[in-house]
Amino acid sequence: MPKEQKKSFVLRLDSATYNLIEKWAADEFRSVNGQLEFLIHKALKDAGRLKDGKDKQGT
User: Which of these, 14, 12, 18, lies nearest to 32 by C-alpha position?
Assistant: First the structure.
């Protein structure tokens, strides 16, 4: 099975929002990038947007 490649993109956030995400990430021992990936994955799962077999994080 081929390894899944990650896509890169630019995300612009105001500094207050970034600081809040950075603190939240630190509280959960994640990087800011990891926290954003976690939050996006959770939102997709909660919205029923993930297809079977795509739920790899086990949240």
Answer: 18
Residue 46 CB partners (closer than 8 Å, separation 6+): none
Instruction: For the beta carbon of residue 23, count every other beta carbon within 10 angstroms.
Output: 12
Dist CA 28 CA 4 (whole Å): 25
For the beta carbon of residue 39, count every other beta carbon within 10 angstroms: 14
Distance (Å, whole) CA 15 – CA 43: 23
Indicate if the pLDDT at residue 26 is higher than 50: yes
pLDDT at 4: 83
Identity of the residue numbered 46? D
Residue 59: what pLDDT?
47
- Per the listing, tokens 């990891």 go with 34
